[in-house]
Write a structure and sequence with these properties.
binds 1-O-pyrophosphono-5-O-phosphono-alpha-D-ribofuranose; 4 helices; alpha/beta; three-stranded antiparallel sheet; 28% strand; binds guanine; 185 residues; 9 strands; Rossmann fold
Length: 185
């Protein structure tokens, strides 16, 4: 067993489970219903934010039984650290956004910089309406734009460093089948 494997297994074993797979699945079902009712007839473009939004988008899309298109953007602020820094654009969406209803899908709304920046970027590109979804919202008073909220939120979490369902700890455990908080963080 490599050193990383052993260390990361220990991180998982010692973590606190905040939401189980079943609880996340219920939240996904609820989100899918809300999205369908809100934009199901609007030919939306789903914009998955890589890397964190991958698992959420992957589990959400099969729950949406209406015509939609998918694209992705990649931007990163944490780069494997547990505190955010400068927002770095890595990949811009390739689809023309002009006149589109866009739904941005991400794993977490923490301080809110990432979703807010992407919303603004989509508006600048001419999107008619930009909706935002985060599987989890972290509860604290450090929001970068206090008025900014996601339109669709799956679950609220305490102010801990989280992994699972797309969220990583040092690049690992995006695959964890639940939402976990790292011990001591
Ligand atoms: O609300 P904020 O404080 O801006 O943080 C939320 C963002 O942080 C994570 O991305 P990260 O920069 O870690 O990149 P990743 O998606 O590749 O993990 C997460 O996927 C969100 O996009
Ligand atoms: N993995 C992970 N990414 C984040 N980005 C912002 N907050 C978090 C968090 O708690 N966990």
């Amino acid at each position: 067993m490599s050193r990383n494997t052993a260390e990361m297994q220990q991180v998982f074993d010692e973590a606190d489970c905040i939401y189980t797979e079943g609880q996340v699945s219920e939240a996904m079902d609820r989100l899918a219903g809300e999205i369908t009712a809100t934009i199901g007839d609007q030919d939306p473009l789903i914009l998955c934010i890589m890397n964190g939004g991958l698992v959420v988008a992957g589990q959400l899309l099969p729950r949406l039984a209406f015509p939609l298109q998918l694209d992705y953007a990649q931007l990163s602020r944490y780069r494997g650290n547990t505190t955010g820094g400068e927002l770095e654009w890595k990949v811009h969406p390739q689809t023309r956004l002009s006149g589109r209803t866009v739904l941005i899908v991400d794993d977490i709304l923490d301080e809110g910089d990432t979703l807010a920046a992407l919303t603004e970027a989509c508006q600048t590109e001419g999107a008619e309406r930009v909706w935002t979804l985060a599987l989890v919202e972290k509860h604290h008073d450090r929001k970068s734009q206090p008025g900014f909220e996601a339109d669709f939120i799956g679950l609220q979490t305490p102010d801990r460093y989280l992994f699972g369902y797309g969220m990583d700890y040092q690049g690992y455990w995006r695959n964890a089948p639940g939402i976990y908080a790292v011990r001591g963080l």
